[in-house]
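Below is how a single chain appears once it has passed through the pipeline. First comes the sequence as given, then the structure the pipeline wrote out for it. We keep one example in the README because the format questions we get most often are answered faster by looking than by reading.
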Amino acid sequence: MQNDDFNIDVVIAEITAFAENMHAKNQHKKKVCLRCMIIIPLVFMVLMFTMDTAKVVYLLLWVISLFIFCAYLIVIDYIDDKLARNLNELNIEIKEKQADTSLTDSIKAFLSEVQL
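Resulting structure:
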């Protein structure tokens, strides 16, 4: 990336596109997890009532699977929330410093130092 090619608007657009893409992927993961949260415990419940052996094992698997799916949903939601908060903070900082041209000058200087 050359100093002449650097544009803060392009960087902001790329970061925003990345965040929107991650949000869409997280929403898809949540939908899949909710479907699995219904189907897999239902399978364990059917097995528990149809099999004559070791009903406690199927009951345990049923409960454990529900805990695992809940934990996965919590982690995905936490990641999505953290991403949204960071993007929000970045947008606020950029709006505050957008009038200050020294920000872009300092970024250009940093990029020129990195490309030694």
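The chain is about 85% helix and 0% strand.

See the next section for the split statistics.
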